[in-house]
User: Which sequence fits this backbone?
C-alpha cells in the first residue's frame, strides 16, 4: 500500500470500487453540502469533490472535502490547474493532507470562458500530468517542485482523468500511458454512453499493459431527460452520445424519461463490469445524488466492502 | 458639383472619400467603368469594396451612408449619366443636415 | 509581427475630446501590415475625426503624420517639428509605439487609438493569427513548430485536454486545437516519438511573469 486511502485499499483488495461525485455549493451554505453527503453515505467507497467545475465559483474543494470527511465520507480531492499556480497547488496539498484527505484527482479543468467568471485569467502554470508528477514526488520522495524537502510530506493516492471519447482518438491511450508514467495510481473516465467505443479503449489499455499498473474506473452519468442527452451530445466537448440512446430516452413520455435514464445507467454499469481491466465505476449523478443509492442497488453494488 | 478624372476607379482609397467629405463636400459619387471593362482587371471591383468600407465609416460616425455612392456607368451614355448626377444631387439636398463647410479644413 | 485593431471611434473621442489640437501619428510597420495604423489608416482616422467633430459643431485642429516605425528612437524624432504646436498625440502605433512616443515627448499626453492584441502572422490578406506569447524559452523544435503555449488555450505541455473535439478547441469551434495541430505536424514529419517524453513544469520566469523584460547588447551600442 502506498497510502492510507480507502479507495486504494478497496482496489488493492480486488473489490469492484464505487466512487461518486459531489459538487460543493455556490456559496458557504453547509446545509446543501450536508444533504448531498447524507444521500451518498454508506453506498460508496469514496466521494469526489469537484473543484470549481466548469469554472463556476463554488466552495473550495479542500474545504468541502474536510466537511464531508467530518460526516464520515472518504473524499477524493479534485484539483484543477486552471485557477492556481504551483505555489498554491502544493500548499493546498499540504493543507488537504493535514485535514485528513488521502486521495487526489489531478485535472486541467474546463477553460474559464465556460463559467461565471469569464474575464478571469487562466493560470495553467502546470498541466494535469505535471500535477500528477508533483503529487508523486511529494509522496515518494518527500520533495516539492525544485527539490526542497517537505515537513511532513502528504502521501496521496493519485488519480487522473481520461476521456476515451475525445479527439484525437488515437492519442487517448498514449496520453493514458503518459499519466501512468507520471505516477497516476487510478483513472476515472469521462461518462460512457458509447459502450462499444469504450470497450475498444479498454482493449487498447489492456494490450498496452496499462491496466496492470493502474486502476481504471468507468464513468457513469444517468440521463435525466432527452433534452439532457441532446445537450450533452451537441454542446459538451468530449462526449459521445449515440443517436440510438437519445432516441431511446426521447421515445418514452417525459415523466418516464428519468426512469429510462437510470435503467440505461444500470445496464451500462453491468456491461462495463464485464470488461477486462475495469476496476470500478465512478458515478457522476450531478445534482441528482439522491438517486445514487437506487442505481447501485439495481446494479448490485450497494454493499461496500469492509477494508 | 466637381468632377475629378482619374485613370481608374481603383485609385480611390477609402480615406480619399472621407477626406472629400471632411473638406466640405456634401457627398461623393464614384463612377466606374463596367465591371468586365476594367482595364486594370480588378480596379473597379476593389473600388466598390472601398466605397462600401467608407460607407461603414459614415455609419459609425452617425452620418448618412448615402453620401457616398459607387456606380458602374458606360462612359458613352451621357443621358444616363446626367440623370444619375441629378438624382444624386437631389438626394444630398434632401439630407436634413449637411456639413458646415466653414468648420472643416482643406485637404 | 504585432497585430492590433482600431478602437471604437466613440472611445477615441472620449479620450481626446478635452484637447483642441490633435496630432494623429501612424506607424508604417506592423500595424500597417494588419491594416490598423498605417499610412492609409492614419489618413482615414484623421478624416473621420474631422467629420466627427464637424458634425458635433466642435472646433478641433487635426494634423496627421506617419512614422516608418513608432517604436524606434531615431524614427520618432521625425515628428519633433510637429509636436510642440499640438496638445496631444493620438497614436496609431501598437502599445510599444505609444509608450515610446511618451518616453521621447515627455510633456505631451499620448493617447492610443489601437488595442494591441498579439504577436502573430499574416495567414492571408485580412487574416492574422496569434502564434507567439514571448515565453522566452522557445521549444518549438520539440512540437513540430506549433507552439503549445500560444496555440493551446490552456498552455498544456503534455498533450491535449479532454475537450478537444474534431480538431477544435473547447473554448470556441473556430479555434483549432493546438495539440491536434502539433500531433498532425509531428506525424507528418515522422517525429511523434518526441511526444512520449514527459515535459516538466515550464520555467515562466523568463516570460513576463518574471517582470518586464529588457535586452541590452553592448556590442550594439554606439
Assistant:
Amino acid at each position: 500500500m502506498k497510502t492510507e486511502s480507502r479507495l486504494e485499499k478497496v482496489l488493492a483488495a480486488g473489490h469492484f470500487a464505487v466512487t461518486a461525485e459531489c459538487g460543493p455549493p455556490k456559496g458557504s451554505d453547509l446545509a446543501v453540502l450536508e444533504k448531498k453527503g447524507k444521500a451518498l453515505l454508506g453506498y460508496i467507497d469514496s466521494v469526489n469533490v469537484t473543484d470549481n467545475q466548469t469554472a463556476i465559483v463554488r466552495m473550495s474543494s479542500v474545504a468541502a472535502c474536510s466537511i464531508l470527511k467530518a460526516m464520515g465520507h472518504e473524499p477524493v480531492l479534485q484539483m484543477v490547474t486552471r485557477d492556481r499556480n504551483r505555489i498554491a497547488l502544493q500548499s493546498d496539498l499540504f493543507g488537504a493532507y493535514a485535514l485528513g484527505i488521502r486521495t487526489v484527482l489531478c485535472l486541467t479543468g474546463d477553460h474559464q470562458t465556460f463559467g461565471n467568471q469569464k474575464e478571469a485569467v487562466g493560470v495553467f502554470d502546470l498541466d494535469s500530468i505535471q500535477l500528477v508528477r508533483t503529487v508523486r514526488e511529494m509522496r515518494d520522495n518527500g520533495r516539492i517542485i525544485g527539490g526542497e524537502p517537505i515537513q511532513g510530506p502528504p502521501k496521496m493516492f493519485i488519480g487522473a482523468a481520461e476521456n476515451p471519447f475525445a479527439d484525437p482518438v488515437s492519442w487517448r491511450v498514449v496520453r493514458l500511458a503518459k499519466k501512468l508514467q507520471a505516477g497516476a495510481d487510478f483513472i476515472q473516465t469521462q461518462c460512457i454512453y458509447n459502450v462499444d467505443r469504450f470497450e475498444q479503449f479498454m482493449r487498447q489499455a489492456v494490450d498496452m499493459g496499462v491496466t496492470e499498473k493502474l486502476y481504471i474506473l468507468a464513468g457513469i452519468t444517468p440521463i435525466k431527460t432527452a433534452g439532457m442527452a441532446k445537450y450533452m451530445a451537441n454542446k459538451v466537448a468530449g462526449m459521445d452520445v449515440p443517436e440510438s440512446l437519445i432516441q431511446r430516452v426521447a421515445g418514452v413520455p417525459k415523466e418516464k424519461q428519468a426512469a429510462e435514464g437510470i435503467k440505461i445507467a444500470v445496464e451500462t454499469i453491468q456491461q462495463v463490469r464485464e470488461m477486462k481491466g475495469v476496476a470500478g465505476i465512478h458515478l457522476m449523478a450531478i445534482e441528482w445524488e439522491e438517486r445514487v443509492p437506487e442505481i447501485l442497488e439495481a446494479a448490485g453494488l450497494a454493499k461496500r466492502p469492509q477494508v | 458639383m466637381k468632377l475629378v478624372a482619374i485613370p481608374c476607379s481603383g485609385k480611390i482609397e477609402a480615406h480619399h472619400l472621407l477626406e472629400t467629405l471632411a473638406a466640405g463636400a456634401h457627398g461623393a459619387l464614384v463612377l466606374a467603368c463596367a465591371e468586365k471593362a476594367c482595364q486594370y482587371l480588378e480596379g473597379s471591383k476593389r473600388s466598390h469594396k472601398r466605397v462600401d468600407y467608407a460607407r461603414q465609416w459614415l455609419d459609425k460616425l452617425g452620418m448618412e451612408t448615402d453620401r457616398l455612392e459607387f456606380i458602374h456607368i458606360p462612359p458613352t451614355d451621357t443621358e444616363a449619366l446626367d440623370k444619375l448626377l441629378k438624382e444624386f444631387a437631389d438626394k444630398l439636398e434632401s439630407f436634413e443636415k449637411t456639413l458646415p463647410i466653414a468648420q472643416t479644413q482643406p485637404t | 509581427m504585432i497585430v492590433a485593431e482600431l478602437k471604437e471611434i466613440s472611445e477615441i473621442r472620449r479620450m481626446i475630446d478635452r484637447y483642441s489640437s490633435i496630432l494623429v501619428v501612424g506607424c508604417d510597420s506592423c500595424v500597417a501590415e494588419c491594416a490598423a495604423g498605417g499610412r492609409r489608416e492614419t489618413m482615414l482616422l484623421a478624416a473621420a475625426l474631422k467629420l466627427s467633430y464637424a458634425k458635433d459643431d466642435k472646433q478641433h485642429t487635426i494634423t496627421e503624420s506617419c512614422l516608418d516605425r513608432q517604436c524606434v528612437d531615431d524614427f520618432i524624432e521625425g515628428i519633433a517639428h510637429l509636436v510642440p504646436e499640438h496638445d496631444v498625440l493620438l497614436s496609431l502605433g501598437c502599445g510599444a509605439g505609444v509608450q515610446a512616443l511618451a518616453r521621447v515627448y515627455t510633456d505631451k499626453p499620448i493617447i492610443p487609438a489601437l488595442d494591441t492584441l498579439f504577436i502573430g502572422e499574416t495567414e492571408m490578406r485580412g487574416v492574422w493569427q496569434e502564434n507567439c506569447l514571448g515565453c522566452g524559452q522557445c521549444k518549438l523544435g520539440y512540437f513540430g513548430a506549433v507552439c503549445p503555449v500560444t496555440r493551446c488555450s490552456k498552455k498544456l505541455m503534455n498533450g491535449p485536454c479532454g475537450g478537444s473535439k474534431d480538431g477544435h478547441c473547447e473554448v470556441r469551434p473556430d479555434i483549432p486545437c493546438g495539440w491536434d495541430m502539433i500531433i498532425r505536424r509531428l506525424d507528418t514529419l515522422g517525429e511523434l516519438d518526441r511526444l512520449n517524453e514527459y515535459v516538466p513544469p515550464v520555467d515562466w520566469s523568463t516570460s513576463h511573469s518574471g517582470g518586464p523584460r529588457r535586452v541590452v547588447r553592448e556590442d550594439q551600442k554606439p
User: Anything to note?
Assistant: The beta strands of chain A are 17-22, 46-49, 75-80, 103-107, 157-162, 186-191, 215-220, 278-283. Chain A has one domain: 6-299.
